[in-house]
Amino acid sequence: MPDLEVNDFVGLLPESASTEEWVQTARAIQTLWPYERVTALAEIDQDKAAAIAADQNMEYHAPDLVRVVNDKHEMRQRLAKVSLTRVDSELPRDEHEAVESARRLGYPVVIKPNGGRGSAGVRIVESDSAVIDAFRYASEIGTDSGAEKACLISSPPMIEQFVNGREFSVEAFSHEGNHVIAAVTEKFIDQASKVEIGHVVPARISGLEHEQITEFVDAILTALGIRFGATHTEVMLSEHGPELIETHLRKAGDEILELVRDATGWTIDEATVDQAATGRFIHPGWDEAVARTGGHYTGAAAIWFAQAEKTGRIDRIQGLDELLSQTEVREAKALVAKGTLVGAARSSLDRVARVRVVAQDSDTAVAIASGYMETLSFVYQEDS
């Protein structure tokens, strides 16, 4: 990582500040303290960083790219034009249009906020009545917007065809338009809430499947015009091959990059900061052809999450300290503070604990992580 000096300037703008206000402020700072690069390490401010970079002719994601990637429907429309998705989607304006859309697309369909994240507001439905309930639910979740909310911005519901298959994500890093595939991550989904409850690296797939997925994601990133930085792309491997769920111009959440580091030895966070600060990129050193087929992994790592068993205020989670003494455990952590009101999960933000482990192979890592999660017990505060 680069040796960075102490900040010469730290400025703050109110959360309500417009993108144009950020651009004007950046211009003023440039006249006083000249700078050469701009970045945003989280989705919430990428639109501002993109606008500033475009205004000052600096390298960063184009404003249009940031907008499209955060608009699931438009991104799918663009990829359809270059034959990189077979899934049709629509943006119904009300419940009646949602039912008509579902009938046109064919059941089952997926309904979710168009700008949602963390599995928020996602439902798979198979009837007209279920469409109405899911549309209302996605509409509600779509208004929950902000830095730590379910959506980046207020988002209407979108509806798309359902793809049956196994779900994965691809962690990649791009430099000058070339995409280095770091890992294929296998996902585990709670079928009731549709919230992710576990991940393992490497995914338990064949070398051919690994190559199919990574080559597909490489094509997606290229088609969208992504030239640099970390990306997190979610795909479904169906009987017809890989299909896009969505992609993001950021690193993966859920400690997935820690799984990548433990399974490959590459720390993508360091590469991200190095590239953002200096423009340079140091390749992880493996043979790209070998990595595309999954031959670069040196071990396995998994993470498992707990959801609340009932609605109530958490008093404590028993068993976490004991897990930390286990040699395979890299982290065992509560995700909620004492007294937090918890209930049925609506997004990944509603999970209450996590355990991360390492092992020699993925099957063992999954068994250990999920097994250790079963040893935890959740104590709730009594009603006052």
Query: Which descriptor suits the 3D outline?
Result: globular
Mean pLDDT: 90
Terminal CA distance reads: 51 Å
Number of helices: 12
Radius of gyration, taken over Cα atoms and rounded to an integer in Å = 21 Å
Oligomer: single chain
Question: How many runs of DSSP E, i.e. beta strands?
Answer: 15
Topology as a string of helices (H) and strands (E): HHHHEHEEHEEEEHEEHHHEEHEEEHE
Low-confidence stretches at least 5 residues in length (pLDDT < 50)? none
Widest beta sheet: strand line-up? 9-8-5-6-7-10-14-12
Structural class based on helices, strands and sheet pairing? alpha+beta
User: What percentage of amino acids are in beta strands?
Assistant: 15-25%
Question: What share of residues is helical?
Answer: 25-40%
Largest sheet, if any?
A: 8 strands, antiparallel
Question: What are its keywords?
Answer:
12 helices; alpha+beta; about 375 residues; 4-stranded antiparallel beta sheet; single chain; 15 strands
Describe the structure.
The chain is built from twelve helices and 15 strands. By secondary structure, it is α+β, with helices and mostly antiparallel strands. An eight-stranded antiparallel beta sheet has the order 9-8-5-6-7-10-14-12, sandwiched between helices. A four-stranded antiparallel beta sheet has the order 1-4-2-3, sandwiched between helices. A three-stranded antiparallel beta sheet has the order 13-11-15, with no helix packed on it. Helix 1 (19-32) packs across helix 2 and helix 5 packs across helix 6. The longest helix is centred in the middle third of the chain and has 18 residues, at 207-224. The chain is globular.
